[in-house]
Amino acid sequence: MKRLFIILGLVILASSCGSQKRVTTKKKGNKTVRVVKNKPRVKKPKVVVKNKPEVEVTIKDTPEVYASPTDEYIAIYSDIAQDEMRNYGIPASITLAQGILESGSGKGRLSKEANNHFGIKCHSGWTGGRIYHDDDKDQECFRKYKNSKYSFRDHSLFLKERKRYYKLFKLRKDDYKGWAKELRAAGYATDRKYPQKLISLIERYQLYRFDAEVLGKDTGANDKHIVVKGDTLYSLSRRYNLTVQELKDLNSLESNDLFEGQALFVKPLPKD
Hints:
By secondary structure, the protein is α+β, with helices and mostly antiparallel strands. Helices cover 40% and strands 12% of the residues. The model is unreliable at 47-62 (pLDDT under 50).
């Protein structure tokens, strides 16, 4: 009977040794200390979730590069000028030239602070916004607009609705020289060189091409070259039988720098 109890005790002791904890003894000084060690835990592998939606990355468009503030002005407002030509019969070339001259290519105070691109003064009956600016006299009243497009529309109405400008609308819509001279004669500006300044801008920047587009004339679409990688002014001058300087003059370029997608004129458009 005693032997049976001894056997059972050994079985119980053996089963307790197979548990998750190991018991060891260490001597510390003259004392015996019992240390209980846990079994190391096995790290579970991370679960990777596949097919997660990718984060969209927005790539900003490369800003356009312009040779001058005037080229930038033309690019921004040429469509508006052409719409005004369709609606009111004023050559887009004249509208653009006047805008460039009166607003300093959009950099003048009136255009920046009041969206007034044509230097139109308040006059009697004006009930819109106002801004005061030194001109012929100190602190004269000029019209102020919420948006530049209203300035272009008001310019069209200003010419169309005043009797003193009626002779303008008897001229051909592509006669920019006649329009420039008659504007001065009708009293739009006091500067005697005003017509020459407008004509010079129109011819330098080929603004008459916008009139031709509205009138459905040949705009020389085949006389344009779209810059591709590897193009230089020299290679293009050789291809189109021009000098580099002629190519620069045609496109109002102040440097030899080109960018992909740039449209270059490679043949002068007809003026008549």
